[in-house]
Amino acid sequence: MDIVEYVLPLAHIDDEVRRFEQAVAAARRQLETLRAKIPADTPQDIAAFIDTHLLMLDDSMLSSIPAELIRQHRCNAEWALKLQQDALVQAFDAMDDPYLRTRRDDVEHVVQRIQRILQHAEQQPGAVEIDGEEARVVVAVDLSPSDMVLLQQHNVAAIVTERGGPLSHMAIMARSLGIPAIVGVHHVHQYIRDGEPVVVDANNGALLCGLEQKDIAQFTRARRSERKARRELGKLRDEASCTLDGTEITLHANIELYEDIAAMRRAGAHGVGLYRTEFLYMNRATPPDEEEQLRVYRSTIRRLQGAPLTIRTLDLGADKGVSNDSISCSNSALGLRAVRLCLKEPELFRPQLRAILRASAYGPVRLLIPMLTNLGELRQVLELVDELKRELTREKKRFDTQIPLGGMIEVPAAAICADMFARKLDFFSIGTNDLMQYTLATDRIDETVSHLFDPLNPGVLRLIEGVIRMGHEAGIPVAMCGEMAGDPSLTRLLLALGLREFSAPPSTLLEVKHIIRNSDIGQLQREFGDLLASHDGDRLERKLAELNHNHKNFIFD
Ligand code: PEP
Ligand code: MG
Questions:
Q1: CATH number for the 236-556 domain, one of 3.20.20.60, 1.20.1600.10, 3.40.50.620, 3.90.1010.10?
Q2: Ligand nearest to C-alpha 504
Q3: DSSP alpha helices (H): ranges in 119-240?
Q4: How many angstroms separate the alpha carbon of residue 433 from the centre of ligand 1?
């Protein structure tokens, strides 16, 4: 949307402010109408997105500051709104947590809605109109969460957007709605025409256009066989997760939202290996207190019916919502985040630790600390946990006195010194997303360097191998909860490296299980043999491709 600036005569300023306020009011009416139309079976997080947009419209940052800017600069409403949007986007970009940075998308969607009204470009909410019953692929510059609500009521086959990363809200929602999506396809509109048949191969991130009838027939067949393969895969749900040589492999799920537990059950996971608690702290002005957290953890434990729940403490970055300090740093991924932030802000950390300890009275709970870098941090965490246990005992509050306390190994310094951490921890969980980010000096949310992310990089593999070995030598379990654990093409390699606990998004678990059930660890170790010792990246990649090809994976071959 092109926004131009023009200067207004003083006499027109009041009218311009009124025009802006009317546009905000119209945007609110649109969202309220949309909110009222949400079908009852819509996942809770989708309604929450609309509520967030409504809250943003009520906030002075969007409802009154642009009006002040109109007066200050004597400019048109569109320009004032753009100035304020730029300032807000800059502030969000400075935040170091990927989830929080995606809040920026919300600001942009709300601003676009107001701009559309100001420019009379669109009277109705959402940019999406779909006629008829035929399943359509929706191609858009960007989609807001409220557009997604409209979309799920139609027969949408897939989504392709020019903007957005895999962690954007839109991508998260597409995943939770089960709609295949490819995001960040720059200039997609230049390559396809409206109404043209296209194929969205979301498994491989490929969008195919200029199709002939025979191509369409071929992909229709491929889709049918994928559906069939998924149905077959579903039959593995209750089968043992055991290799051909009889080694039991633990398969846990990564969950974020309460609703993920249903998907985890469909995947037959043995428990939760990573419960990311950040979502509890979002879309709100104040962090949840101890009692609220206890309620959420307790109901999650009840739904798990005896399966273990690994609760990771807050992995937020510097955020005004939870911190009074305004922290600025040049590279926020290396800044005050996760356990560093929690140790600096005990009023944030203590209620969460107390809630997790108290929740452990209701079922098997494990406590997981993110981003440990040095033993000093670990010592502080252990002292605090001991102090809180004494406090709870004095208050006669129940908790599991033996609650296992684990550490995420995701900082190279901790990986290299894993033996030292192993002496003080009950288990490890390798966070390969961050471990790769820090080892390869590659920002995990910057799409311009995503080609540098390489799980087969010898440096990364050497660290992973070392952490698994040192953990096992110390007699503690070692899990992996980064995305690598859910990538079926890496399962054989991870088994050969000694990994026996995988924690991954539920949607990936059954295929990983299929590979586990068809693997002989001894044979894999012989196949990889000197390649692992020498860490010859290219030969290793060829060997892995050969093994994956020879022993067909279920769906993605
Ligand atoms: C990781 O870093 O691998 C991980 C699992 O944690 P997150 O993706 O939440 O940082
Ligand atoms: Mg991490």
A1: 3.20.20.60
A2: 1
A3: 145-152, 169-177, 188-191, 213-234
A4: 5
